[in-house]
Amino acid sequence: MSDTLDTSRELGAFLRSRRERLDPRDAGLPERRRSRRTPGLRREEVAELAGISIDYVVRLEQARGLRPSAEVLEALSRALRLAPDERAYLFDLARHRSRPAGEPATAAAPPLARLVADLSPLPAMVINHRFDILTWNPEMARLQLDFDTRLPPARHNSAWLCLMRPEMRDYYLDRDRVVHEAVAHVRAAWAAHPEDRALAGLIAEFSTDEQFARVWAQGEVRSNGRGSKAVRHPGAGTFAVDFETLTPLGDRDQRLVICRPADDDSRAALHRLTASPAG
Asked: Where is the composition biased (Basic and acidic residues) (predicted)?
C-alpha cells in the first residue's frame, strides 16, 4: 500500500500515462517515418512542447525527488493537454494547490445542518473531503438504504457505502460507471490530502476489493460536482436522481450534496419513498 500512496511515484506514473495516451498528431507534431516502439509521445517531444529539458522529464517520471514549480506544471499540463480535473490532480500531487488548514471537519457547520433540514423533501447531506457524512436529512438516509439506522457511525461514509456496502452491489443500474467515478473522486481527494491517515486507511480498505484495485490502477482522476445516477431501490423501484455538490466559501472542507428527481417518473418514485414513514 505504501507504493499506492507515494505522491512522487504517482506523479511520475501519472505524467508517463498521460504522455503515452497522447497522439503526436493531436499535439501538432509531424508524423515520423519510423515506427514508434512505445505509444504516445516520446519524452523528448514532451520536453520540447513544455520547454524543459529531457533530463528533467526523465527524472520526474522516475520519481527522483523533484518538486516541480507551478510554472513547470503549467507547461506540462499544456503539453500533455490535460483536462481540468487532471491538471488539478497534477498540482495537488506536487503540493501546489491551497487546501483547508487544520483537521478535516467532523461535524457540519450549524448553518449547513439547518440548510440540509430545510431542503426536505429533496435528499441532501453534507460530507467532508474524505466523504464522511456529517449531517443528512431523512430523505437522504432513505435514498441510501437507511444507512443511519442500519450501520454504525464509522460507516457513515458515502464512498464506503458506494464501494463496499454489500446492499449497494445491485443498487446502481450502471455500477461500473459509478464505481469508476467514485474511485476517480477518491484519488483526487487523496492527492489533495496525502497527509490524511484516515483517508489513506479507507483507500487501503477499498483496495481489498478487486474492482476498486483494478480501477485505481488505471489512474483515473475526477472531481466533478454534478451528475446523474439510476438506482434500483427496494422500497421505490427503479428511478434516477440528478445530484449537485456545492462547496461553501466559509467551510471549504464541507460539501453540500443535493439530489433531485431526474424526470417525472423518478419524481413520483422519490415521492413514494420519502412520503412513507418507514422509507
From this structure: 22-32
Give the residue among 89, 110, 118, 92 at the shortest CA–CA distance from 250. Answer: 110
| Cβ 168 vs Cβ 229: under 8 Å | no
CATH code: domain of residue 165: 3.30.450.180
Burial class, 210, CB count within 10 angstroms (exposed 0-12 / middle 13-18 / buried 19+): exposed
Structure pTM? 0.79
Domain ranges, residue 190: 110-275
Residue 1: predicted pLDDT: 43
Mean pLDDT of successive 10-residue segments in the chain (279 residues)? Answer: 69 93 77 62 93 94 88 94 89 77 80 96 96 97 96 97 96 96 94 90 96 92 89 95 92 92 95 73
Whole-angstrom distance, CA of residue 108 vs CA of residue 128: 9
Number of domains in the chain: 2
Residue ending a domain, choose from 35, 58, 93: 93
Mind spelling out the 3-state secondary structure of 60-112?
A: HHCCCCCCCCHHHHHHHHHHCCCCHHHHHHHHHHCCCCCCCCCCCCCCCCHHH
Measured CA angle at 217 (ends 212, 219), to 5 deg = 105
168 and 253 inside one domain: yes
Q: In residues, how long is the chain?
A: 279
Cα–Cα distance between 12 and 88 in angstroms, integer? 15
